[in-house]
Design a protein that fits this description.
With 284 residues, the protein is an alpha/beta fold. Helix content is 38%, strand content 15%. It has 11 helices and 10 strands. The model has no long low-confidence stretch (mean pLDDT 85).
């Protein structure tokens, strides 16, 4: 187990006029971002560029993944006005590409899919040229629930596998690798024009061959975009970091992914699902 964080993982504290402007806008609209809730290391850079990943369905997750800093527990009732407020803020900030994600809401019959759909519709009402990426939970493998989101034709549908199948019982306790993989496959059947995307975080005990196998699985279901980043433990109660990957190793995985046929691979120590999301869309 490696405990000392290498130099290439050190980032500046978030600051600057645009960073504070965005935080003020989000607070005044009572909105959450995964950037803040998940303690993303890129928050300063992204907020500084006027970009954010909105977190819908509240800020409390019903699942207890052992790598994620988002609050776990019993969520509050749905905020029916949330889609409208997000759409207004997207217009206020002037976003040309927006990412919408959520906590997992296993307490809801549709997993929150209708709120996703309304959020997409509202954003398009206020911002007709804005492209929309949704980063969704697994919806317990329900094709009917997935269809609710896809009927609104998001430009990109992202669902992260996060890690290799062997580690799911430790990392994603209530998730199922095959469910997640089949969800991405169903997207291409229900909405063939939608770009699909997934992500991995490394450093929780996976082997190199296992990473390659997951990448192959994603290409088997015709996944278009892949993000690969370094796991950074949020605290002592989470899964410890087993290994730090060198930037050259991330470059090698990018090369391997491009050879497999991914349309774009974003691979690096600080890469997260929504990092450079607008630029990724332009690559495809």
């Amino acid at each position: 187990m490696q405990t000392k964080r290498p130099n290439w993982l050190r980032v500046k504290l978030p600051q600057g006029k645009e960073y504070h402007r965005l935080k003020t806008i989000l607070r005044s609209a009572n909105l959450h971002t995964v950037c803040e809730e998940a303690i993303c290391p890129n928050i300063g850079e992204c907020f500084g560029q006027g970009t954010a990943t909105f977190l819908i369905l509240g800020d409390v997750c019903t699942r207890r993944c052992n790598f994620c800093a988002v609050t776990k527990g019993h969520p509050s009732t749905l905020d029916e006005d949330e889609p409208e407020r997000i759409a207004r803020v997207v217009k206020q900030i002037g976003l040309q590409h927006v990412v919408i994600t959520s906590v997992t809401r296993d307490d809801l019959p549709d997993g929150g899919a209708k709120i996703y759909a309304r959020t997409i519709r509202n954003i398009r009402t206020y911002n007709s040229t804005c492209t929309i990426e949704v980063l969704i939970p697994d919806f317990k493998g329900s094709e009917e629930t997935l269809e609710i989101v896809l009927k609104e034709y998001p430009d990109i549908l992202n669902h992260n596998l996060e890690t290799v199948p062997r580690l799911y019982p430790d990392v994603r306790l209530q998730a199922d690798y095959e469910f997640s993989l089949s969800l991405l496959e169903k997207v291409n059947v229900i909405h063939p024009g939608c770009i699909t995307k997934s992500g991995l975080i490394l450093g929780m005990g996976e082997e190199y061959d296992e990473i390659i196998d997951v990448m192959k699985d994603l290409r088997e279901v015709d996944c278009d975009i892949l993000t690969i980043g370094q796991y950074l433990s949020p605290g002592k109660e989470y899964i410890p970091i087993k290994r730090y990957y060198h930037p050259e190793e991330f470059k090698r995985l990018k090369y391997e992914g491009e050879k497999m046929g991914f349309k774009h691979v974003e691979s690096g120590p600080l890469v997260r699902s929504s990092y450079h999301a607008a630029a990724q869309f332009n690559f495809v």
